[in-house]
Amino acid sequence: MAAPIGHAPGFQPGSAVPLFRTRVAGPLGTGHRFPIAVTRDGQRFLIYVETRDATPEPITVVLNWKAMFLESKK
Fold first, then answer.
1. Which single residue of 15, 26, 42, 49 has CA 20 to 30 Å from 34?
2. DSSP track, 5-61
3. Would you state the pLDDT for residue 33?
């Protein structure tokens, strides 16, 4: 939601309007206090969303990565 704010004479909030629709994922677990982050300039948002219809992306787990890194330094 967003609302215009007037400043003269004094604080004057306008009517709130939706910015966009999304499905915010909930509960996120320990360490995730807020499901939404906004950039300092207010132009971009990072939002945890539910993707029920999407196929999960595969992940790659590298075991013993430290040894692999040390081998490349030789």
1. 15
2. EE-TTS-EE---B------B-----TT---SEEE-TTSS-EEE-B--TTSPPPP---
3. 67
Structure tokens at 70: 């040390």
Token pair of 39 as six digits: 């950039």
**Residue 72 backbone phi and psi in degrees, to 5:** -70, -20
First-last CA distance in the chain = 56
From 46, 21, 27, select the one nearest 36 (Cα to Cα): 46
Q: Which among 57, 54, 34 is positioned nearest to 46, based on CA atoms? A: 34
Is residue 27 very low, low, confident or very high in pLDDT (cuts 50, 70, 90)?
Answer: low
Cα–Cα dist 47/20, whole Å: 12
Q: Is the pTM for the entire model greater than 0.90?
A: no
